[in-house]
Specification:
Elements: E1 3-8, E2 11-18, E3 27-31, H1 44-55, E4 59-63, H2 79-95, E5 102-107, H3 109-120, E6 124-130, E7 149-154, H4 162-173, E8 180-185, H5 196-210, H6 213-221
Parallel strand pairs: 3-4, 3-5, 5-6, 6-7, 7-8
Antiparallel strand pairs: 1-2, 2-4
Helix pairs in contact: 1-5, 2-3
Length: 222
């Protein structure tokens, strides 16, 4: 899990990167919660998602957006953080120029940034969003949503109430060709304390179902 630093739009960005053994392994970018509320790449949910992708044979990165940890720059209200994520994906693709499969995952604010990445980067073929803040941000840009994915939330979440997430899921599922795998953890609040193992199982289950048979066989052989 080597530390890497790469050039972002507003200075150097701090990251952790795992390079898969399998040539041309699928890629994954994992995005952390809101930086103004303590969000960083070592958040338990962010780290859990990172571990899932690593375990399944992906080359995967998590990073601190501008102004977080050792990353340079200052929080910019979303536009800059999206630019940071785009540069992180560029870095991943430069290191892995022949990889064709790309996933984006994010928790809370990271889910919001990650789902914007879906609209800007056509190479992204799937997503995992945990507690997407549907009551705080406008997700109407997902019209149409270009890819299916997994959305997970807690039934006892007081910060992002489950009905707000369910409404977003219903809108996405109404779109032609889109299927959202929606999972609600009944005893779980916004922070997923004591629920990260369950989250890892859900993410792994979804990824194995979404990846093609040939891709699964390659990952299993690695």
């Amino acid at each position: 899990m080597p530390e890497v630093m790469f050039q972002g739009p507003d200075g150097r960005l701090e990251a952790r990167y795992h390079h898969a053994k399998m040539p041309n392994a699928p890629l994954a970018l994992v995005l952390h919660p809101h930086p103004l509320h303590g969000g960083n790449m070592n958040n338990r949910v962010t780290y859990t998602l990172y571990q899932v992708f690593q375990r399944l044979g992906f080359s995967v990165m998590r990073f601190n957006s501008r102004g977080v940890g050792k990353s340079q720059g200052r929080y910019s209200g979303g536009e800059g953080e999206l630019a940071d994520a785009a540069e992180a994906l560029d870095w991943l693709q430069r290191i892995n120029p022949n990889s064709k499969t790309v996933w984006v995952a994010g928790y809370q604010y990271g889910a919001f940034i990650g789902m914007q990445m879906l609209m800007r980067r056509p190479e992204v073929c799937g997503f995992i969003s945990v507690a997407p803040p549907a009551n705080h941000f406008d997700f109407s840009f997902l019209a149409p949503c270009p890819q299916s994915g997994l959305i997970v939330t807690g039934a006892k979440d007081e910060i992002v109430p489950e009905p707000a997430v369910a409404k977003l899921v219903a809108k996405l599922n109404s779109q032609k060709g889109i299927r959202i795998d929606y999972r609600v953890f009944e005893d779980c609040d916004h922070f997923f304390v004591e629920h990260c193992d369950r989250l890892a199982e859900a993410a792994e289950d979804h990824l194995l179902a979404a990846l093609g048979r040939d891709e699964r066989m390659k990952l299993a052989a690695d």
